[in-house]
UniProtKB/TrEMBL annotation:
Protein name: HTH lysR-type domain-containing protein
Domain spans labelled HTH lysR-type: 6-63
Higher taxonomy: Bacteria, Pseudomonadati, Pseudomonadota, Gammaproteobacteria, Alteromonadales
PROSITE patterns given in the database record: HTH_LYSR
Keywords assigned by UniProt, alphabetized: DNA-binding, Transcription, Transcription regulation
An example Gene Ontology molecular-function term: sequence-specific DNA binding
Family classification: Belongs to the LysR transcriptional regulatory family.
InterPro entries in UniProt: LysR-type_TF_proteobact-type, LysR_HTH_N, LysR_subst-bd, WH-like_DNA-bd_sf, WH_DNA-bd_sf
GO annotation, biological process: DNA-templated transcription
Amino acid sequence: MHKALNNLNLLRTFNAAAHHASYSLAASELCISQAAVSQQMRQLQSLLGQQLFTRKGKSMLLTQSGEVLFLATNNALSVLTESLDTITKQPLEGPLTISSTQAFSAIWLIPRLHLFSKLHPEITINIQSSAGFDDLTAQHIDLAIRFGKNVRQKTPKEYECLYFGDGTVHPVCSVSMLEELKNTDDISARPLINIGSSSPYDWLEWAKHHGVSQINENTAYTSVSSTDMALTAVLNSNSIALIVDYLCQNHIDSGELCIAFALPHPNKVERYFVYDKRSPKHERIHVFIEWVKTQMAEEAGQ
């Protein structure tokens, strides 16, 4: 057996440094100091009699020997991870922590959660609200439900990022307000609600797409941080907001709200499930994912 195998921690640290091309990022992942990573890499290179990294700017690039070792450690760690996941796999029953936006949690998920509990009383759901891209491991999150066009780009490679459809955004108002809106020119004279300060579903892009010149860079808006706040404003005032269909459909079906104009925003709201594919709660995660997909498809009449 090669003497380097007497200290597997050196190989684990090497794999992290090679993966990130950075000693500092490897240190952050392994919860040790950058100096410790540097020391371990010097020790490993001394044991092997090979240079494994070369520095280029702020990056640590692999040498040819480093590339060979990185491939080997990747394969070995994957085999170990799969084996450990198999022997530590949790049963279906137990807790499952879900993270999603405040709006989706409050408007869509929580009102329907009793339906899931009837089907799977053995699974206890815990919900955390967050609009950010949380570190699932650090925050002890089993499954995140995320939205937008940049979810894949912001999801670490070690996580599964599963697309499960999209939603259409329309201008939504109260039924009484609809009587006052003869055409799109009338929208600019009403209080407009924007969700978020840099949302890809804003009024300006909607107006440009549909040629509504009365809405421009000088138009004033009321900005709120989430869709549930926008819905509250629309329900209780003469405001108009751009809201995705699955978060306002119940209010439309009840006759409280309506689509002001059948002119959708050019950007759809993409939906994704994000989770650690190595999670021992994989069976639990899969059951919940399939329930959400089925529930949304049924409500959409698919």
